[in-house]
Amino acid sequence: MMKISVLEGGQRLDVFLANETQNLTRSRIQKLISDGHITVNQKPQKANFRLKAGDEVEVFVPEPKSAEIMAQEIPLDIVYEDKHMLVVNKPQGMVVHPAAGNFDKTLVNALMAHCGDNLSGINGELRPGILHRIDKDTSGLLLVAKDDRAHLGLAAQIKEHSLTREYLCLVHGKIKADSGCIDAPIGRDEKDRKKMTITQKNSRNAVTHFFVIERFDKYTFVRCRLETGRTHQIRVHMSKNSHPIVGDAVYGKKKEEFKLNGQLLHAHMVGFVHPITNEYMEFSREIPEYFKEVLETLRRRQL
Questions:
Q1: 2-59 belongs to which homologous superfamily?
Q2: Residue ranges of the domains in the chain?
Q3: How far apart are CA 23 and CA 148, in angstroms?
Q4: Alpha helices (H) in the chain, listed in sequence order
Q5: What's the pTM value of the predicted model, to 2 decimals?
């Protein structure tokens, strides 16, 4: 039980717990609150409940449930693996974790077969080991935790923005500046709840740094470095910057000249401090073949 001091009064319940509990992620705290496992003065409250001096906060963390996920022998491109974590190169078209309409053939199904019970349970039964995600139609590198200690250490780096994540993408239009920074908050689109948008309402800060690699007549090959990691961040930022990603069916152009199955966006590099050994590690994977073919087509046009 935690008793709120005068100095701590006025804080939101979820913010207070995020600062006070070192072994729980912000998303885990919010799930515990919504499930009624966190009480204030013996009564469940919402995440935005404002605490007062003298309030008593209790946190009950239930034992992790056995993951109700079917292990499936699906080939994995494992870039790095030890007894604490993995770095996996996800192909375009693969969903990261089970959800409505996608309960099998996901990355998690493949990880369950590869790792068995050796996956962190912090994110709950449908997302064992998953620290962050990339969209179904985005390819590239993902970190996966095998135990809770590794999960918490890597999650802390994501929260502190000390994890390095770089993406390569092809966008419409010719970007004039060699580099730049897009600093615009992202939140759920009120008109279409499946989409994200730049908004000041119910949003979170989002920062993307971009660097031009190569220019073509109507396209630009770009490297993006994430300072934050919001849902669809690069796709939204580049689209709102008048340079949507080629092949993006949600935020891009309706008519595309290339026959693509998704956006040309690839998480090509990740850098982090190993949560157990404290060694800095960095991994990269080149863009997939279908992405290379589009670039080669554009280069031939330049000749």
A1: RNA-binding S4 domain (3.10.290.10)
A2: 2-59, 68-160, 162-303
A3: 9
A4: 13-20, 26-34, 107-115, 148-159, 233-240, 289-302
A5: 0.78
Q: Maximum CA pair distance of the chain? A: 73
pLDDT at 77: 97
Q: What HEC string does 146-180 produce?
A: CCHHHHHHHHHHHHCCCCEEEEEEEEECCCCCCEE
SS3 percent helix, strand, coil of the chain, rounded to 5, is: 20, 30, 50
Q: What pLDDT digit, counting tens, does each position of 147-173 carry?
A: 999 999 999 999 899 999 999 999 999
What's the CATH architecture for 68-160?
2-Layer Sandwich (3.30)
Give catalytic residue positions: 135
Q: Is the pLDDT of residue 270 over 90?
A: yes
Residue 190 sits at φ, ψ, to 5 deg, of -70, -25
Question: Contact 140/266 with Cβ under 8 angstroms?
Answer: yes
Round to whole Å and give the CA distance between 92 and 291. Answer: 11
Cα 7 to the chain's mean position, in Å? 33
Q: Does domain 162-303 have CATH number 3.30.2350.10?
A: yes
pLDDT bucket at 26, cuts 50 / 70 / 90:
confident
CA atoms within a 13 Å half-sphere pointing along the CA-CB vector of 64: 18
Q: In 3D, which of 167, 270, 166, 178 has the Cα closest to residue 215?
A: 178
Residues in contact with 220: Cβ distance below 8 Å, sequence separation at least 6, in sequence order: 170, 171, 173, 174, 175, 212, 214, 243
Do 2-59 and 162-303 come out as alike in CATH topology?
Answer: no
Residue 301 has pLDDT above 90, yes or no: yes
